[in-house]
Design a protein that fits this description.
The chain is mostly helical and 191 residues long. 64% of the residues lie in helices and 0% in strands. Helix 3 packs antiparallel against helix 4 and helix 5 packs antiparallel against helix 6. InterPro entries: TPR-like_helical_dom_sf.
């Protein structure tokens, strides 16, 4: 090979490496900006209304972090609204699955917290337990291998066992012994 060909190959390799470096640097900056936005959203702010208005256009991860911070701060209604906004029917990604799981946990915690010492054995009557079970079931339909959701669903089922509906059972009498009526014949006429 000529020296010029080697120099061109080396220049091409250096150009490709430089392009890869630029792309990776750009992606790193994006991740750092996302991490900064998540940490700002996760902190409880005195100006929560202004922060929540800016979250409408924020990435889903930032809204999930804000919903988690609101749930920890005890603002359950606002957290439920944010979690519900992250759950898009039909297409649920990792953030949507995390929102489903966290929303189920929020409902379950609220049900356990609402149980007073007098009815500590009866948080099962709470509709919040039913909401939590539904969220866990929704998540398990999307990700059947999610063991955390499976465990929490089992815990919710222990608090509030499923009520089996009374199903009308058909006669268990064998077909041969049923009373068959035919016109013009008596029951004793048949073998």
């Amino acid at each position: 090979m000529k020296r010029r060909t080697l120099h061109l190959l080396f220049a091409l390799a250096a150009l490709v490496a430089t392009l890869l470096l630029v792309v990776q640097t750009w992606r790193l900056r994006q991740h750092q900006a996302l991490d900064a936005a998540i940490s700002r959203a996760a902190q409880s702010s005195k100006d929560a209304a202004a922060l929540d208005s800016t979250l409408r256009d924020a990435p889903r991860e930032v809204r999930l972090a804000r919903a988690t911070a609101l749930a920890r701060a005890g603002e359950h209604e606002a957290a439920t609204r944010l979690y519900s906004g992250l759950i898009e029917p039909g297409q649920v990604d990792a953030v949507g699955r995390a929102a489903l799981f966290d929303l189920g946990n929020l409902h379950l915690r609220q049900a356990l917290a609402s149980a007073t010492p007098a009815n500590a054995t009866e948080p099962a009557t709470s509709p919040l337990v039913e909401l939590a079970k539904q969220r866990y079931r929704d998540l398990l339909r999307l990700a059947p291998d999610d063991w955390d959701a499976r465990h929490n669903l089992e815990r919710a089922l222990r608090l509030s066992p499923e009520q089996e509906e009374a199903v009308a059972e058909p006669d268990n009498e064998p077909v041969e012994r049923r009373n068959v009526q035919l016109r013009g014949m008596k029951a004793g006429d048949l073998p």
